[in-house]
Specification:
Layout: H1 3-11, E1 33-36, E2 47-48, E3 54-55, E4 70-75, E5 83-84, E6 90-91, E7 108-111, E8 114-120, E9 125-128, E10 133-136, E11 138-141, E12 151-153, E13 156-159, E14 168-171, E15 175-177, E16 185-188, E17 192-194, E18 198-199, H2 203-208, E19 215-219, E20 223-225, E21 228-229, E22 231-235, E23 238-241, E24 245-246, E25 249-252, E26 255-258
Parallel strand pairs: 11-13, 12-14, 13-15, 14-16, 15-17, 16-19, 17-20, 18-21, 19-22, 20-23, 21-24, 22-25, 23-26
Antiparallel strand pairs: 1-4, 2-3, 4-8, 5-6, 7-8, 9-10
């Protein structure tokens, strides 16, 4: 209570609002905060080259981490600060909630010297969770086209749709395509499996488009596909085609099997 202000309101400031008493509002505590220390869930956007031209298929690399990289820090909760009302009574404030990392962690572990710090245990893409971060050695995509951009990844890749013409996929692991591969380039440090067919441009299409692009697949291991049409396939082990090969150039260090 401000006695002087109260007396002034009765004498000098009749009819005017005057503050005659003040309280202190309580400040609630803050819950545990999880701070990402790596680039996660970043939106990939087209980049301009040195000549100023923008390649709409090049959306930049997918964020990657390696074993031992720091990923996230857990900041403990903060206590609330009590306040007082205008009668000088204490107003309590709730403390922040104490949250911890989940019991099961995927591709990460607690630092042995700092339980609030998470480090990667495998190579892959960091994915931000509600109360942690996980590392995915295998990423899944609905398809590869202009909206997704070209894909460069250290782990393995599963594509549930098609790989459209003009796209470039390069991974260190395996590539599995559940759809078809058009006149695109796929490079894999492991095997390439195309559950649909490989459909490159034929000679007439290439001439009409003034382009020499066709489907090009290069695998350090095996290449498997339902059928192949107008494609260049290189496998440093073997090539297996279930049905037919049309107008293709196939190279394998081990064997080429066509049909069942």
């Amino acid at each position: 209570m401000d006695e002087a202000a109260f007396q002034s309101a009765l004498t000098n400031k009749l009819g005017e609002p005057v503050t005659v008493a003040k309280g202190i509002a309580p400040v609630p505590g803050k819950d545990t905060r999880f701070e990402p220390l790596v680039d996660v869930n970043r939106e990939r956007v087209p980049r301009a080259g040195e000549d100023g031209r923008v390649n709409w298929r090049d959306l930049g690399d997918i964020p990657m981490v390696s074993p031992g990289d720091v990923l996230m820090r857990r900041h403990p909760p903060l206590q609330g600060t009590a306040g007082r009302d205008i009668f000088d009574n204490v107003l309590t404030a709730p403390d922040g909630k104490n949250l911890d990392y989940p019991y099961r962690l995927e591709g990460v572990e607690r630092d042995p010297n700092d339980s609030d710090l998470l480090r990667a245990t495998t190579t892959g893409q960091p994915v931000l969770m509600r109360d942690s971060v996980k590392v995915e050695p295998v990423i899944k995509m609905p398809g590869v086209n202009v909206s997704t951009g070209n894909i460069t990844f250290v782990g393995s890749l599963v594509i549930n749709g098609d790989v459209q013409s003009g796209m470039h996929v390069k991974v260190d692991g395996d590539v599995t395509v559940h759809g078809t591969v058009e006149a695109a380039i796929i490079e894999a440090g492991g095997s390439i499996t195309v559950n649909g067919g490989i459909v490159g441009q034929n000679a007439q299409q290439r001439e009409s488009n003034n382009a020499s692009e066709q489907a090009k697949l290069h695998a350090k291991a095996n290449v498997r596909a339902k059928y192949a049409d107008n494609a260049v396939i290189i496998a440093e082990q073997s090539v297996y085609i279930d049905e037919a090969v049309i107008e293709c150039d196939i190279t394998a260090l081990n064997r080429v099997e066509i049909g069942t």
